């Protein structure tokens, strides 16, 4: 089954409790976990999807939102192809922290990384951030924007699929950022264990 | 059905059939296996799988496969790829039993085959490991880790340089943080994560071309993952070294295994890599707020110190110190919290510097000291009196200094003390230091004391090199009262070879009970005291004359004097000591600035010292003892306030009870001479005029400088040491200068006479008038009796003043705390000290050529 053509690394960031883990589990396992505990450090999930008849493997790194894990989580930004920045539309503080997150991304991630802003928990009645506010913010900072509900499975599939499509597009146009040479294969081999950058598989 | 029969002799039931159908739609499938043309290696591989996974690997067939691989190594990579394909399918279909068997087979092949051929097989092997790690099943993840560790322990002849471990580091680090609901599973996953990291480290650490494991992207994952597991231990047991075999269960508990792994990592770090490990450690402690309380920090840093290659241990201290600094410079958090973190960091520092000291040499030692002092100074600059955390921080730094010095050889301690003493801001008497200066002074003196306490004095000349002694004596009079007391305490610890300081904390006259141990003064010490005794004595004498003295100041000076008596008393020195005692007694009536209490103190101190002499000089001094006893007896009846213990206050004292009204209760110079003579001591020196008098400080200071300058220039040091001790003393007493009694109104006086001036401005008191008269009398006397050259110096004061002022100004102009490297060496000291060659030698060298 190791016949995927592309491998992309996706990292989720955002304040604690905004629903990152729920989004990932909805996407990879198709469920909304009751009583999902806070993530410790980093979690890892994998999912292979199909785009235009080609298999794309998504390696998903779900980071902890808690401050104390910030230094280890930051170390995962660097090799990400896409960064999903999540806030909770029913919780103003999680939106207010976005500039801080952007600063971190600026500092630790590759500057060509695909950035997506996600307002999660649209199913909730007590919305605090109107959709257009989030949209504006995303536009101003050159990010894609989507509102989701992990609970109602709204836009979750779409979120990851669009990422896959976009990254594949980039990869095909060879626009995909060349990650630091040390990551790429040396001596011309394309097979590389420990997956390096975009990993075009034959 | 025949298909099924062909591939799997014993059918597995219904769902199996379903999956088989699925399987055959797969292009990568083993459909070929059904063909007669199926390659041999595929057949061999297929045969190792049992019908039912519970039966486990088919051993005999596995042997066949191994044998085949060994004889046709060129097939190995295809075997690997095929096994991987099969396992991938089995994972997809959740048939984990078969996955486990495939992995086991790969493990066996890996171990059986030899390195040249291994390279391509390893690619499939690692793909397999990764595949298993990607699954959500803990069992497969753990299995994969075990295989990975097995692989990591194999030495490859030619490691594949394009192989990257990025995924493994990322995934194992994530596993180290497992939050699995079931605790035992959680611990197993965490253990596997740690083992995996250990494997990556072993595999890559020796060869940067494979993967530079020291890069931040890896260290930022590995180090926090290990620490996160270590910090979850119930208690922290720090042992200096850890033998895995000897410590049962180390492999079963995540905290212990994480610790092993950290030790291994740190132990393998070369100099350039230390920082790569330390930076994430420090960040982790900040992030997880592990400084306060600091037991985990102490635990961790000790482990680092124990496992680091000894020659690099200094860099841990350095990194921690810089971190402390950075925390001070404005890290996150509110100021109070920051101060607390700083204090806790510094406390960690004090726990580990001792470990560093053993391996530190030369420049790194002073570098550490310098850093500590810099931090202290920064703290003082920040300090706002009330901040207790800042105080705690300073204490911690001072403790660190002490801990560090404690583990250095003694000769380095002296170097360090010289170094510190030169950092003490010198607020000369008269010149007003800032409050910060005064605080820095106290703090540096505390540090000095801390270091001094760790020093074990043998010979006084080694404990007090000339430049060091000079600096100490300068401070003895220059500092604020609490600092002066500290300085005396430093002298105590350096002088007190026989542990008497505790017994002699306060003046007493009952020595018989104390059990003092006295030994004959060594020749080296006699030479030392003949050279420097005068400077020391006059400094102590001056110290007793200060208006600002507290009870503590007087008592500490008493202790210093008493210790000097014990350490140095001998036939040769007794007269000098007696002369000093008499001078102290005399000053109680002649020094106009003293309070009533201070007058009583000085009288009591002198009788306490006089009573000590018969106990410490190894001569029968019965007559002297009788005489002193008589005085004590009489005072007990008539004037108990003139005996120890010293009181802070003597409220009910009438004017008639003042020392000057009770001359018959005083120790009489002539009587002492008689007593000494009767005991066979040559007391002639005692009859010459006293060199000690209020205001004599300047002249004396120069005199002692001269003696040292002479020694430093090598002019007469040889002669000095070569001559019998007595000669040295003669030399000194020949210089006993009577020509120092100066008019109280003269402008040249600093110190006591300055205070006197201030008093005079307030209108002369009785005592002052008396003093003026006395001075006039002695001055007249001096002109009548003193040798010509003394008069000459007396009448040439302006050179002295000018020089003195220059000296003061140059010492006030602030010395940078951080000298250019190397300037802190003893050589540096000698230089500055030669520059302070006293004016006398410049202007009247001929007077001093003896
Ligand atoms: N109503 C609603 N609740 C959600 C949704 N997504 C997550 N939650 C809830 O939000 C809480 C936090 O979800 P998590 O997925 O653990 O949040 P997280 O971002 O992973 O948090 P950290 O791991 O601490 O960073 C849980 O109680 C979820 O049930 C959603 O779409 N709608
Ligand atoms: Mg989470």
TrEMBL record, chain A:
InterPro entries noted in UniProt: P-loop_NTPase, Rab, Small_GTP-bd, Small_GTPase
Presence of keyword Lipid metabolism: no
Pfam families: Ras
Record bears the keyword Cytoplasm: no
Alphabetically ordered keywords of this record: GTP-binding, Nucleotide-binding
Entry-linked PANTHER family: RAS-RELATED PROTEIN RAB
Protein name per UniProt: Ras-related protein Rab-30
Gene encoding the protein: LOC113520214
UniProtKB/TrEMBL annotation, chain B:
Pfam families from the UniProt entry: EFR3_ARM (PF21052)
Protein name as it appears in the record: Protein EFR3 homolog cmp44E isoform X1
SUPFAM superfamilies, sorted: ARM repeat
Compositional bias ranges of the Polar residues kind: 734-748
Gene3D superfamilies: Leucine-rich Repeat Variant (1.25.10.10)
Alphabetical list of InterPro entries matching this protein: ARM-like, ARM-type_fold, EFR3-like_ARM, EFR3_Homologs
Region (Disordered): 717-748
Family in the record: Belongs to the EFR3 family.
Domain of life: Eukaryota
Species this chain originates from: Galleria mellonella
């Amino acid at each position: 089954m190791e016949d995927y053509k592309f491998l992309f690394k996706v990292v989720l960031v955002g304040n604690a409790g905004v629903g990152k883990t729920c989004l990932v589990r909805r996407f990879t396992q198709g469920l909304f976990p009751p009583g999902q505990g806070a993530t410790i450090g980093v979690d890892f999930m994998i999912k292979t999807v199909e785009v235009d008849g080609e298999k794309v493997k998504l390696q998903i790194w779900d980071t902890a939102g808690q401050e104390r894990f910030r230094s280890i989580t930051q170390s995962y930004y660097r090799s990400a192809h896409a960064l999903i920045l999540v806030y909770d539309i029913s919780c103003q503080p999680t939106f207010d922290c976005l500039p801080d997150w952007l600063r971190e991304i600026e500092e630790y991630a590759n500057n060509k990384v695909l950035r997506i802003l996600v307002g999660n928990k649209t199913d909730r009645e007590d919305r605090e951030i109107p959709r257009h506010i989030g949209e504006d913010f995303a536009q101003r900072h050159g990010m894609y924007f989507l509102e989701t509900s992990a609970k109602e499975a709204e836009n979750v599939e779409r979120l990851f699929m669009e990422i896959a499509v976009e990254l594949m597009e980039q990869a095909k146009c060879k626009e995909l950022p060349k990650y630091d040479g040390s990551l790429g294969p040396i001596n011309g081999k394309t097979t590389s264990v420990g997956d390096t950058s975009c990993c075009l598989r034959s | 059905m025949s298909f099924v029969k062909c591939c799997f002799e014993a059918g597995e039931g219904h769902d199996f059939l379903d999956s088989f159908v699925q399987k055959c739609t797969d292009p990568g499938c083993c459909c070929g296996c059904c063909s007669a043309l199926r390659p041999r290696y595929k057949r061999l591989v297929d045969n190792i799988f049992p019908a039912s996974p519970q039966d486990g690997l088919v051993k005999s067939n596995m042997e066949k496969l191994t044998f085949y691989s060994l004889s046709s190594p060129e097939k190995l990579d295809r075997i690997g790829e095929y096994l991987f394909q099969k396992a991938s399918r089995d994972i997809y279909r959740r048939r984990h039993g078969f996955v486990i068997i495939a992995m086991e087979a790969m493990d066996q092949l890996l171990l059986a085959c030899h390195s040249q051929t291994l390279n391509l097989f390893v690619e499939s092997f690692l793909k397999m490991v990764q595949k298993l790690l990607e699954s959500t099943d803990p069992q497969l993840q753990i299995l994969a880790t075990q295989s990975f560790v097995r692989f990591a322990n194999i030495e490859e002849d030619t490691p594949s340089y394009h192989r990257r471990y990025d995924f493994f580091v990322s995934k194992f680090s994530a596993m180290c943080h497992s939050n699995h609901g079931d605790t035992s599973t959680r611990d197993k996953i965490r253990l596997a994560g740690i083992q995996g990291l250990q494997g990556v480290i072993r595999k890559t650490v020796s060869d940067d071309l494979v993967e530079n494991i020291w890069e931040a992207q890896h260290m930022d994952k590995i180090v926090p993952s290990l620490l996160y597991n270590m910090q979850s231990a119930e208690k922290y047991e720090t042992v200096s070294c850890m033998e895995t075999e000897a410590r049962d269960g180390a492999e079963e508990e995540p905290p212990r295994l994480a610790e092993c792994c950290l030790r291994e990592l740190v132990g393998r770090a070369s100099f350039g890599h230390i920082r790569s490990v330390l930076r994430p450690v420090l960040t982790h402690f900040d992030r997880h707020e592990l400084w306060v309380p600091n037991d985990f920090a102490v635990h961790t840093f000790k482990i680092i110190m124990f496992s680091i290659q000894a020659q690099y241990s200094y860099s841990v201290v350095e990194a921690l110190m810089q971190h402390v600094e950075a925390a001070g410079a404005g890290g996150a958090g509110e100021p109070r919290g920051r101060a607390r973190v700083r204090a806790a960091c510094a406390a960690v520092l004090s726990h580990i510097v001792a470990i560093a000291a053993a391996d530190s040499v030369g420049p790194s030692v002073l570098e550490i000291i310098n850093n500590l002092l810099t931090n202290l100074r920064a703290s003082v600059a920040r300090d706002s009196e009330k901040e207790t955390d800042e105080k705690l921080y300073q204490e911690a730094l001072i403790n660190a200094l002490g801990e560090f010095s404690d583990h250095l050889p003694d000769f380095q301690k002296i170097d360090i003390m010289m170094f510190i003493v030169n950092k003490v801001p010198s607020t000369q008497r008269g010149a007003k230091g800032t409050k910060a200066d005064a605080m820095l002074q106290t703090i540096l003196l505390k540090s000095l004391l801390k270091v001094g306490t760790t020093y074990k004095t043998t010979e006084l000349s080694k404990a007090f090199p000339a430049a060091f002694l000079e600096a100490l004596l300068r401070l003895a009079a220059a500092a604020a009262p609490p600092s002066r007391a500290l300085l005396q305490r430093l002298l105590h610890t350096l002088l007190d070879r026989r542990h008497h300081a505790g017994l002699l904390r306060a003046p007493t006259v009952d020595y018989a009970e104390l059990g003092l141990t006295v030994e004959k003064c060594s020749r080296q010490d006699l030479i030392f005291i003949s050279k420097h005794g005068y400077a020391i004595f006059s400094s102590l004498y001056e110290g007793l004359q200060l208006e600002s003295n507290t009870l503590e100041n007087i008592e500490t000076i008493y202790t210093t004097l008493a210790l000097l008596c014990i350490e140095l008393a001998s036939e040769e020195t007794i007269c000098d000591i007696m002369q000093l005692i008499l001078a102290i007694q005399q000053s109680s009536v002649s020094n106009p600035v003293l309070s009533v209490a201070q007058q009583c103190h000085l009288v009591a101190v002198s009788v306490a010292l006089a009573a000590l002499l018969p106990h410490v000089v190894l001569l029968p001094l019965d007559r002297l003892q009788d005489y002193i006893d008589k005085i004590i007896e009489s005072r007990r009846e008539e004037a108990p306030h003139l005996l120890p213990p010293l009181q802070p206050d003597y409220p009910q004292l009438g004017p008639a009870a003042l020392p000057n009204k009770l001359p018959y209760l005083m120790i009489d110079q002539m009587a002492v001479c008689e007593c000494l003579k009767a005991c066979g001591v040559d007391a002639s020196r005692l009859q010459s005029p006293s060199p000690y008098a209020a205001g004599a400080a300047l002249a004396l200071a120069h005199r002692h400088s001269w003696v040292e300058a002479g020694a430093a220039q090598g002019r007469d040091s040889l002669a000095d040491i070569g001559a019998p001790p007595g000669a040295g003393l003669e030399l000194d007493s020949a210089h006993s200068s009577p020509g120092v009694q100066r008019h109280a109104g003269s402008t040249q006086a600093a110190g006591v006479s300055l205070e006197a001036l201030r008093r005079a401005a307030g209108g002369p008191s009785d005592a002052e008038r008396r003093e003026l008269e006395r001075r006039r009398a002695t001055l007249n006397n001096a002109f009548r009796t003193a040798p010509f050259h003394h008069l000459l110096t007396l009448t040439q004061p302006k050179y002295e003043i000018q020089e003195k002022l220059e000296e003061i100004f140059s010492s006030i102009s602030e010395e940078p705390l951080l000298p250019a490297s190397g300037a802190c060496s003893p050589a540096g000291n000698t230089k500055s000290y030669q520059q302070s060659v006293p004016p006398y030698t410049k202007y009247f060298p001929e007077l001093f050529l003896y």
